[in-house]
Amino acid sequence: MTRRTRRTALASGLTALALVAALTSGGCSAERRDTLVVLGPWTGAEGIAFEAMLKRLDDGTGKTYAYRGTRSLRETLVAQLEAGDPPDVAVLNSLGELTEYARGNRLEPLDTPGHPPWAPRIDVNGSRHTYWVPLKVDLKSLVWSKKNKGSEGNKGGAGNPRWCVGLASQATSGWPGTDWIEDLVLHRSGPDVYARWASGRLSWRSAAVRGAWTAWARLLGERSKKSVDLSLTTSYEGTRDPDAERPRPRGLLNSPELDCTHEHQSAFIRYLYANAKGKGGAKEGGGVRVDPSARFLPGPAAHDGAYEVAGDMAAAFRGGPAARELVERLSGGAARRLWHEEAEPELRPFFPGAGDPRPTDPGGDEVAAILTGGAKALCFDASDAMPPALRDAFHRAVLRYFRDPSAARLDTLLGQLDTVRAETGGGTLAPDLLCAPPAPG
């Protein structure tokens, strides 16, 4: 949201094109000598909190840090690189993009040790280095449900969830569906198969991958054309009803049009369900709780301890030692403490270390416990680990399959994805870099 980390829907007053132009025409170079510029995906309340942390972090460094937030991150960064004026530091959630930038000599190597699955050491020009660090992380293998519905799973045939589906997300529409496929591959086939597929070593037409697509269709059940069209045009955040006497909050679970009880979505969505409660049940007066998705997904119980995760990583594109130092400071304890202090409770980030500050909103502490020790394996978001062209093709294929989940359509889509896999080399990282147990400390 990122792609899959949330992009707060507060208007910036600029179109994406105007924003790119504003950020590329002197947005960095005018301040180059005295200011280190960080380009990132957070706007609205998230961007305000990150910027406040950054301003507090620059005290006593002799450098000024400035934040430039955009909801068109990839387009902005590509435009700046083509203009020869990249930011000093950029924050991305795609390991595939970061690896391509590193191997294209766009990134500066760091002195920090590897931190899989968030920031592994990779081979570039015959030597191994870390090129980015995790700033914030997210847990994806979760299901949010209406009060008194959260304990009903469908493993073993129990329960009958009515699944919320909102696949629209501007240029990256489809990613909520790819999250479903990825989680199903992980829970049905385990981390080893998942990592081979995510790294391009396993065919899209293999039984493990194909089975995940058909399992998704079975879980969602029969859907009318009206329901399908609604899901394809509904934002993953849901929508408000401006004509209602008391406008309902956003969130797919709050949408009467979708008429659903369960939502498969990562932990960032908790800002829409601030009253969410963990496994103890829904908070009195609240309406939503959160549970591990393994309770609802088919697959061996041995894989229930594996979780799909995502993260926002910082890399130095230019700026020399000062930029590299900033990247390392951004992932340090002081920055995490300040960020936690500046963010609203439901927007407080998750961090990868057990000793880092944890969100205190209901459900947030439980999610943090899984990320920092409760999981057996954390596997990085498969599409974010793929080359960008393959990731984008995956997004489009999910949208087409959702409209027509026939066997013939699936055969065509998986064949096309295998073709893109061959054209792009399939993967950017080795399988053993994509899954790891939670890091100690």
TrEMBL record:
Segments of this protein annotated with the region Disordered: 233-255
Basic and acidic residues composition-biased segments: 238-248
UniProt cross-references to PROSITE patterns, sorted A to Z: PROKAR_LIPOPROTEIN
Superkingdom assignment: Bacteria
Gene behind this protein: aglE
Record bears the keyword Signal: yes
Keywords, comma-separated and alphabetical: Signal
Species whose genome carries this gene: Streptomyces alboflavus
Protein name as catalogued: Putative Alpha-glucosides-binding periplasmic protein AglE
Span of the signal peptide: 1-30
